[in-house]
Design a protein that fits this description.
The structure is a single chain. By secondary structure, this protein is of the alpha+beta class. The protein has 2 domains: about 90 residues, Ribosomal Protein L25, Chain P, CATH 2.40.240; about 90 residues, Ribosomal protein L25, C-terminal domain (RNA Polymerase Alpha Subunit, Chain A, domain 2), CATH 2.170.120. The protein is about 20% helix and about 40% strand. The longest helix has 13 residues. The termini are far apart.
Amino acid sequence: MAEIVLNVELRENTGTGGARAARRDGKVPGILYGGTLGPVPVAVRANEFRKALHSGKLLGHVVTLKHEGAAQSVIAKAIQFHPVTDEATHFDLYRVDEHQLIKISVPVHFTNHEASPGLKRGGALNVALHEIELMVPADSIPEELVIDLTGLEIGDTVRASDVTLPKGASVSSHDRNLTVASVATSSAMKSLTGDEAAAEPAA
């Protein structure tokens, strides 16, 4: 069962004016997509939405939507924020079955930097992708993908297809062959090599 529950109200007025009215009433407006019912304008109390957002388990996770006693599983895929206050101003939810395969981007994190010979020698970790797009069951979305740097030498690369995934998940065809990160020669190492070459006596 989802850990986050959002109690929503239906919005009668749609468009920009309806969204403004919801915000004046202390609510965050949103749209519920997917399924056979079409888009439905909804709103959530701002304090409740803020609490769910700060839990870290709202965006990109399956949550339970409740309205007048009825519950359904949804996933939050987009949240807009005010540029000054950083408060949520709008959100998009999508109806899902808990075991349905969905496409979603998951953040990448790296571990065991100290166990990489290339990094220990002064190499630099060049990160090309900060997120990887997965096809994954809605109830098995990982919070992050962890890449182990153990044993990586200078010149080694990690592709999206090399990353360990949860059961039932796969990398989307768009990202499958992309490089996630590589261990490269750092500018400091290049500078050191140049200094050593300059210091060598002429033959």
